[in-house]
Records
---
Amino acid sequence: MDTRVNPQTALEILELVGNKWTMLVTYRLGERAMRFSDLKRCAAPISSKMLTQTLRELERFGMVSREVLPTMPPSVEYRLTDLGRSFLGTVSGICDWIGDNHEALEEARRREAIAA
C-alpha cells in the first residue's frame, strides 16, 4: 500500500469497498441512476437501514451522487460518480467471477457440509 495514504483512511476505504452491500449497490447503480425504492427492490435482501447507510458512505467517499428531484412529493435519485464508475470495473469483475464459478463454489460448500 502507498505509504502516503493515511492508514486510518485506508482501513475505512477497505471496509467500504469490501462490504457486500457496497458491491451490490455499486453494481446495481452501474445499470442506471435509481430512486431509493427501485434500488432497494433490485438490491434485495438489503434492508432500508443498510441501504441508507451504504448510500451515505458511498456518497461520503464521492462514489455516489444524490439528487433531489423536483417532484411532489420530492424524490431522490442516486447515481455513480466518475469515481464510483471507476470502482464499478472491479465490482463487475468480481460479480462475473461469481457468475462463472457459482456451481463449483456451491459444490464445494455441499462437500464441506457433508464432511462436517
---
Amino acid sequence: MQRPIPWLWITVIGLLLLAPGFTARLFFDVLEGFALLLVFGPLVLAGAGFLAWQWFRRRLITCPACGTPSFGAATCPACGAPLIGVSASSTTASEQPASSAVIDVEVRDVSGEP
C-alpha cells in the first residue's frame, strides 16, 4: 500500500522557511555559512599550506660537504658529515650580491688532440 504525500507538513515547513521569522533566518544563516565555507575554505587551506611550507623550508639544513638537504639530523644522511655546527641560516648563499661576485675561469683543452 502506498503512503499519501504529506502535503500538510510540506506546507508548514515551506511557510516556516518563507516567513520572516527565526526559522527562516536560521536556515539562511546556515546556508550562507556553508557558501562562505565553500568559497573561502580552499583559500584558507592554501594559505595554511603555504605558511607550513615556509616554516618547513626554514628548518631544512643543507650539508656543507655534499649539499644534501636534511631535517633535524645530527649528521648528513648522504655523506656522514656533521651538521651540528651548521645552522639553517648559514647554509644560504653569501650576502654578497651576484653582480659584484668574481668567478675565476680556467680554460683547458679537453679535445684530446696534441
---
Amino acid sequence: MSQGELWGLSGDRLVEVLATLASPHRLRVLAALAGGRAYVSQLARDLGISRALLQVHLKKLEKAGLVTAHLELSPDGKALKYYETAPFSLHLTPDVVALAATTLSTAGDGDAVPKGNS
C-alpha cells in the first residue's frame, strides 16, 4: 500500500475520517474502546453521557469505519450491542495530504464536509 492510500483513503474519505475525529465526544469514545469492547449502557455510564447522545456518536464512528458493532445475548437472554475499535492507522504527512487532495470529488474552499459528519 502506498503512503497516499492510508488504508484506501481517498481525499473524500480522509475528510470524512478527520471530520469524525474532530469531536471531543468521539475521541473519548474511541479512547474508552481502546481499552476493550463495551456495550452501550456501560459505555454511556463510563463516559458520563446519555445513551441517546452516545448512540449518535457511535453511529458516526461506525459509518467512518472506526468502530464495529455486534449483538450478543447475555446469560439472562438480553441482547447487548457491543462496540469495539476497528483496526486503523493514520499517518499524515504533507505528501499524503497533497495526494489525497488530488482525489477530492468537490473543488471548493474546504468547507465541504460529507453529510452527517458535523
